[in-house]
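Pilot study result, target chain (270 residues):
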Amino acid sequence: MKKVYGSKVLITGAGKGVGKACAILFAKNGYEVVGVSRTVAQGVKHYPGGGVLTLRHMDVTDEESIQRISKEYGPFDVLILSAGFGVAGACEEIPIELAQKQMDVNYFGVMRTVQTFLPDMRAKGSGLILGISSVAGRVSIPMQSQYSASKYAMEAYFDALRIETKEYGIRVSLIEPGDMHTGFTGARELYIKEDSDYAQTVLESVSRMEKDELGGVHPKIVADAALKLAARKNPPARVQTGVNNKLATFAIKHFPDRTVEKVITKLYMP
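Predicted structure:
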């Protein structure tokens, strides 16, 4: 597959799920991949055709950690920003500290990474930045408001970033997956206040989410989409993966808010 932007790729969240699937697929297709996360088992693996996957520790909430990777392995031609986790609980009860943690990883972690590696891309006059967003970044999911808020913020940031960097030869695109069978489900942080009036609703809503996620698609589908975008000179602003997710996005665009709200309520509220 043609390497439009170059062969060096940085992938955050590479220890599991979508990030791991992307790291392996890109390395198998001849890219020089540096896959980073807080918990990844460090090492180097070579693939036929010249591809290599280097796994290293990096925390997107730690500026020094990001700068260390930049100095050791940068610059990069492609960024794939996949690090993230989910918080669940009622809007009324989620502690500010937990909401800040959610934003620090899913949104500010994206900002820190982009701001570190973008200058080299701009100086070169070429680069691709791919963000792993979610359908929850287009329609807010009840009992998962903070996760949705972090992905809404990411979508807004990428839309501005796309416009600002286009003249420098940089392309910016979002991938919006739906339900996937990954470690995201088990890593979700659930908060229910003691004696909460929402307790049963939160538990039943999250149970529905977990069932959908465990029956969801393999993360390789998202990795395939990322690889195809890396071969396009002018990738679209955003792409959806999975038939159901594409239909959901179509509905969000073309149906009234009240109709979409009714559907979301039926899907996630007991």
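One observation from the pilot: The radius of gyration is 18 Å. A full batch analysis is planned for the follow-on phase.
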